[in-house]
């Protein structure tokens, strides 16, 4: 599913009109979809009191269409018009003709009618500004948004439904006006918008639903930003034939761990195993091998030389390198720590000839050590996935972390092309960028995943998928989605405070099962 900017959405609407689907048709489809979702959110329409805040443009028109349908289904609907409608627009008259009560802001100088309507309402539809050009909220619009926010605070049962974006949110940047209301549900027309996945705006969207309004998917095929979906992931997961054996699904090598971070090695190896490769080998410092061997009974172990601080030493390059040909994927970095020896290890494994034949994923301190090798990307000749969090991306790029966060898609795309690797920039709405410029965005933003070790789980997932033959792009995208889905399952069971990385491990097979069930037949 494509993600669009405001300009791209306007171009798609114009192209759709040129292809024979008029703006009126798009508006009717949008309003009907909003009405249906509002009815669903309220548990029905009959007798439900609905207030529609109506702006001057197409967003207001969508709201009036929704008002008309909700009234015909038995809701008690009031339309509060905040800005004059165009004289040629008949939707206000059509709504009134259907029995919608129409109030005008000019007839309510003290805001008492609005305040009364908000007190009575069960559902408020924000159909004021939508994706139009972002500007500071002023006058009656600002006052109405503040009144809606106050009403929601006074009545927690009030349901706020925003059309395309909450009024006061920039649909491109995610910036929000101080008066911007927080939605319980945002209904996005045709395509999700870039701002839905950029903070602070992403925190105002609530539950996001994308509805088809009649724009042909063919018109958007050229766009290079996409939202990851379960059916897309399900179509790319490897098949599991009945006559398979452990050699069918590949062999993942996990090079990870140190005395201080033994848990990272465990999490990465167990996550890889939960993805379904036939074999997983964990190569870890010999000092922590006994602990890991007792916890990971299904994993093959390769103890490695270590330095005096319990980190993998440079001498391990020879031990690992002589066995590389037998592995179908390699994971490096989880729980490494930082040292000159680890830089030398990565130099020997990744930069010097002959290098690995299998695809490699590098994470955590693997990336921090890799950043100390000048122009490392010019000397890697194998498929590579890097999975930095914003701080690690800042180290790799020498950009401020704040810039990485404010330009997540742009930074991931730029450096995926520069380094010729797949970049999975972690965080809320993780971004996966390919060297060809295509970016995909995770739908998940889960504070429960903001704890140590969840990144190690993601890296292991990607390594397990690479072992089974997925391309680096597909392995990274599928891994990010499955990791996020397992996080949502854990949040549903446990809440988002106190969730641990290990809680995801047993849920990964269920996440795989569910996306397989969702994929088209």
Could you please describe the fold and organization of this structure?
The structure is a single chain. The chain has 521 residues and is of the alpha/beta class. It has 2 domains: 204 residues, Rossmann fold; 289 residues, Ribokinase (UDP-N-acetylmuramoyl-L-alanine:D-glutamate ligase), CATH 3.40.1190.20. 40% of the residues lie in helices and 15% in strands. It is built from 19 helices and 17 strands. It has a 10-stranded mixed β-sheet, sandwiched between helices. Strand 9, helix 8 and strand 10 form a beta-alpha-beta unit. The two termini are 18 Å apart. The mean pLDDT is 95.
Write a concise keyword list for the protein shown above.
521 residues, 10-stranded mixed sheet, single chain, UDP-N-acetylmuramoyl-L-alanine:D-glutamate ligase, 7-stranded parallel sheet, alpha/beta, Rossmann fold
* Number of strand elements: 17
The rounded distance between the terminal residues' Cα atoms is: 18 Å
Low-confidence segments, ≥5 residues, pLDDT <50? none
Please tell me the overall pLDDT.
Answer: 95
Structural class: alpha/beta
Percentage of helical residues? Answer: 40-55%
Strand content: 5-15%
CATH topology of the largest domain: UDP-N-acetylmuramoyl-L-alanine:D-glutamate ligase
Question: Total number of helical segments?
Answer: 19
Radius of gyration: 26 Å
The CATH superfamily of the largest domain appears as Ribokinase
Looking at the overall shape, the CATH architecture of the largest domain is 3-Layer(aba) Sandwich
Read across the widest sheet, the strand sequence of neighbours is: 8-17-16-15-14-13-12-9-10-11
Provide the CATH top-level class of the largest domain: Alpha Beta
Q: How many domains would you count in the coordinates?
A: 2
**Main sheet properties:** 10 strands, mixed
Overall geometry comes to elongated
